[in-house]
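Backbone shape codes:
***
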Amino acid sequence: MERATSALAEAGLAERVQASVRELSAGQRRRALLAAAWVGAPKVVLLDEPLESLDRALRDRVLGWIDGLLRKGATVVVVSHQLEPFVALATAAVTVRNGRAVGPVEWPASAAERLGILERLARGEPLDPTAH
């Protein structure tokens, strides 16, 4: 119970500990879901737009949580239109084009090169600039 209470506090819901999820606003529900995820020690995490509609402090907390999971050997799959926050954390990239998975691609050490790959994948451009 102490971990749950602490996670709710980290998510900014300390005052709502006794509230039912049904009593929470949409934003508070999102925070409650994040707090629930922070309590466990998952080995595999699937995240769909995990930073959407979060303030900067909570966004940083989510990115730190993802980094901690990766350092513990967890597999984290993130689906996001926000590429930049994940460049430093990513170890591979996959996209879907015409109903087929493209990737994983060779992952360079340079953050700028990684971002370039993510940008090309997001735009549906070929990874090889010389390909037509």
About this structure: The two ends are 57 Å apart (CA to CA). The helical segments are 2-10, 26-39, 56-71, 111-123.
